[in-house]
Each structure stands twice: as C-alpha cells, then as structure tokens.
Amino acid sequence: MNITDLVRAIELDRVSVSEHAEQEAEADGLSLAEVYASVRCGEMIEHTPAKGRCLPKCLIYGQPPCGRHIHSVWAYNDHKQLAILITVYDPSESSCLWFDNYRKRRQI
After folding, report:
1. What Pfam families does this protein's entry cite (predicted)?
2. pTM of the predicted model as reported, rounded to 2 decimal places
3. Could you tell me if 94 and 72 are in contact, meaning their C-beta atoms sit under 8 angstroms apart?
4. Which of 46, 68, 83, 105 could form a disulfide with 9 if both were Cys (CB 3.0 to 4.6 A apart)?
5. Residue 28 CB neighbour total at 10 angstroms
6. Coil, helix or strand for 43?
7. Cα 105 to chain centroid, rounded
C-alpha cells in the first residue's frame, strides 16, 4: 500500500468510511472533502504492514487548502482496490504528542 493507491481509490470513489471516522470528523469540524484533499496533498508518516488477515494500515498527514492539519488512518484492500478510512483527527488538538509539524510521534 502506498499513498498513490489511496488517492486512486478516492478519485474512483472506492472508499469506505467507518462510523468512527464519520463521528471523529464531525467532532473536529472536518468534511470528508477536506480529509480526501489532505490525502491528495499529504504524505504517509506511519505504516503498519498486513499481518495475518489484517489489512495494511497507514497514517497520513496532510494540510489541504483549508490550512488545517489533518491526520487520517487508512487501511487498503488491494484485492478490491478499496480504501477504508478508519479514523481522522486534528493533531493540533493533541500537539504534545507530535513534533516536526505533526509528522513525528513523540516517544512517551
């Protein structure tokens, strides 16, 4: 999985959004359009490879034209070419956990 796979899935409307992601986006005042834009202009900052039956996952950081910092966690089903938005949040609300402009997690 790479960010190109996610962007392609977004462009082809091959995205599944978890209920949790919808709730978190609403709580942070983020639209799905902003989340998708953050992926298009973003970068993968963490990656967890597939393990057993679990899909590979990644954390994307992006700052779309709206100017907000956005983290989104995605899984990707290569067989179905489907991107799954697991959760999304504004990392500035937990800035003590991040450094390097919200790209690196602090070791606690």
Report:
1. DUF4258
2. 0.89
3. no
4. 83
5. 16
6. strand
7. 15
pLDDT score for 4: 97
Cα dihedral sign, 16-18-19-23: negative
Which residues are paired to 77 by β-bridges?
82
Write out the H or E segment, with its range, that includes residue 72: strand 70-77
The domains of the chain, with CATH numbers, are 3-92 (3.30.2310)
d(CA 34, CA 70): 9
Contact 91, 46 (CB under 8 A): no
Q: Which two tokens stand for residue 9?
A: 């899935």
- Whole-angstrom CA distances from 66 to 5, 38, 106 are 23, 9, 26
Q: Which residue reads 């983020």 in tokens?
A: 30
pLDDT tens for 24-53 read 999 999 999 999 999 999 999 999 988 888
Does the pLDDT of residue 108 top 70, yes or no?
no
Give the span between the Cα atoms of 77 and 83, in whole angstroms. Answer: 6
